[in-house]
Design goal:
2 domains; 4 helices; alpha+beta; globular; 217 residues; Spore Coat Polysaccharide Biosynthesis Protein SpsA, Chain A; 34% strand; 19% helix
Length: 217
């Protein structure tokens, strides 16, 4: 699955941050060692003990304002030429290498589900080009939904500029991408997803357990 859940080991604050602000130190146990995050006036400075080597930054969403707002919090950390991989929390999906199937530009990893009206449906043409994203539609045009996507920093910036226009501030990625497509943007839907479960409900949680048990048989 490529997912793990860090286990907090230690948390302390001390003087010495920028402008005399406290310097917060969080120690997390992760595969291969311990990850120390030093938070100083909105910055996260990673220091690693053990075999793991990683650069980690995280941003805080001041209030719940939708997925788009959450994504754009990361924009200052992303260069235009870099790839951005987006997956939703509280989901379990296969294949484990699903992101490897996605291409440069903007591409969505699609999954076929029994109840597409509960998700964001991706309508594509015969070549896989995205025509429309339906946000939890009452009458879905397809049973293929997106579960993850990949885009460049440049496209993320373009979406942000569009999101900032008067009257927008979309809550959902689907409506924003639809507007971006209408202005000449291009996106691709890759039907490489094998299984997708939202564990935010009791039913989904049970489905996820069954899916993970089957995967380890």
């Amino acid at each position: 699955m490529g997912r793990f859940f860090p286990r907090p080991l230690e948390r302390r604050s001390s003087p010495g941050g920028a402008g005399g602000l406290p310097l917060h130190r969080d120690v997390l146990e992760v595969p291969g060692g311990q990850l120390c995050l030093y938070r100083d006036w909105g910055e996260a400075l990673p220091r690693v003990r053990g075999a793991l080597a990683a650069h980690v930054c995280y941003a805080v969403q001041q209030r719940p304002a939708g997925l788009c707002d959450a994504l754009f919090r990361a924009l200052p950390f992303v260069a235009p030429e870099e790839d951005v991989l987006v997956g939703l929390p509280d989901t379990v999906w296969f294949p484990e290498d699903g992101f490897c199937h996605l291409r440069r530009g903007l591409s969505f990893l699609l999954f076929r589900v029994e109840r597409p009206q509960l998700f964001d449906v991706v309508v594509t043409d015969g070549q896989g080009a995205v025509q429309e994203i339906q946000v939890k539609p009452a009458e879905p045009k397809s049973d293929w939904i997106w579960g993850a996507f990949k885009l460049t920093g440049r496209i993320l910036s373009e979406l942000h500029d569009l999101w900032l226009e008067p009257g927008r501030r979309d809550e959902y990625v689907g409506t924003l991408v639809n507007a971006w497509l209408a202005r000449g943007g291009r996106a691709e839907g890759i039907r490489a997803g094998e299984a997708y479960v939202d564990v935010g409900t009791l039913h989904g949680y049970r489905q996820a357990i069954e899916l993970l048990n089957c995967a380890h048989v």
